[in-house]
Amino acid sequence: MEKIFLFPIMEVQGVSDMKKISSYIWDYRFSYLGAVLSLLIAVTLDMAAPRLTAHVVDDVIVGGNIGELKFLLLGFLGVGLGRCIFQYVKEYTFDKNGARISGDMRRDLFRHIQSLSADFFDRTNTGELMARVKEDIDHIWDAVGYVGMLLIEVFYHTGIILVCMFTINWKLALISGAAMLLCGVVAVIMERKLGAVYEEISEENAVLNTVAEENLGGVRTVKAFARESFEIDKFLSHNKRYYDLNMSQSGVLVRYYPVFTVITTVLPLLTLLVGGRFVINGEMTIGQLTAFVEYSTNIVWPMEMLGWLTNSFSSALASNKKIKKIYEETPAVTEMTEPVKLEKIQGKVCFDHVSFHKADRHEILHDITFTVEAGKTLGIMGTTGAGKTSIIQLLQRMYDATGGAIYLDDVDIRSLSLEQLRTSISFVMQDVFLFSDTINDNIKLGKKRYLDFGTVRKASVDAQASSFIERMEKQYDTVIGERGVGLSGGQKQRISIARALSKKYPILVLDDSTSALDTETEQMIQQTLRTLAHTTKIIIGHRISAVRHADEILVLEGGAIAERGTHGELLQKRGLYYETYQSQYGEVSAAEEDDRKSADTQSVTCPGRVEKRGGEADVLQLV
Question: Which CATH class is domain 427-504?
């Protein structure tokens, strides 16, 4: 196969900028236009009713013109029917558009979160992300839906009422205008104070979600260590903080809201008193005063709504800032603009002087070099924290190596698409994660449309899982609990192994995936793995039994390769591997002493390099 080298690798940012809320609204501009038009018509009809009342008083009651009454009554009927129709249209349309936009925003935010690299999730709590995806999007939903509708209605309603008032009596209208101005100033002051409080409430809500999610997810661990009281106190401390912040919000509302109440109570009375003087002086008719009082009563509710609307709008603004911070995150692992597309993955894996460290940690891996030919098996051993799992995370490009290069079929993995790379590797994780779904769908995970039941059952048999699955009442259609609750550790591991085997990818990685299995079951799975002649296998384990049949075994210590060789060669070295064997099996038997392969072998390693292994040392030399 022709070796492919692409240096330097050109990368492209795989993240989309946050779409402005105005852009989402623009997507539904025609629907919003219809909703706003319906709103304007409904409010205009509402403002026509006091004019009709004025004519009833002046022309019919005072003037005695009974003939006009039927036309005025028909006018009231028309206004009522029109308001019913257009009120329904505008409320339904605004609610529908708000639901659509929130759905679009939630979809885009979730896609962006999914595009971020593993380092983002290392430093971000699940509860915080849940709060952003759910509560914060809901606040914006309110702003672009019902709350937004009411804001438009308040401003138009207020404007048209003031016009109607000034056309009747401009002197009397000045009183209402001054009251409106005072309410507006108070609303602005209140909005600024609420904005700061809402940011803190949003942050604490995320923390509260995280604490609740961790405790509910780990409730069995909490009970096992009798930590209920401690965890309850921990939750209550955050709950108290959340309560205090909401009380601070209520304090702002209580401080300023009475201003609106006083104004809305006094304004109609003041209008009636001053307007009565104008009627006595002949500057207004009784009908005009009646209409004006009705307008002043109508102007009350926008003033009352200002506090609540300001409250909700401040919440939406704070939520939008939180969501914007998520969009400011960019993935550390990105693809090339035009990635290499391999027709078929053979499964050859090569690490060439790979080193790795995270921004906030010391070096995790140092100068890791090895090659696994297609169809061969590599075993990796080492103490906890030696860097075993990090090797697999680098192979999958969950992180990028900070030094050296990794090759798949002689191609630098950074030049491949993430999809092709990751769909070439079946991974059995150390921490088994099963979804709250059927066993069948858990095994099919990632390939539900392509795997038939025969493949699922064959994988289950090979993973030694069919024996307990088929004893269940619903067998493969059994719904397991969240994270596999209800299954033993060994059962969960076997389902996870079946999930990996069913994909038949060219590379199979098992990260300490038989630790919860009994010896007999482990041996049967090992026999299954040895039959996968065309699958490259990387086995990470603490047990000698998991790696002893590998073509090469790496022993890691402190993030570096301390020893390497076959099972027999490593026993002969009497180093770390030998000590591990003794701790697990006792003294090395005579049969084990005879189980050695020739040390004078030669194998091709990374592109452009040859590895010569001889006895105690491994020497790398350039071709």
Answer: alpha beta
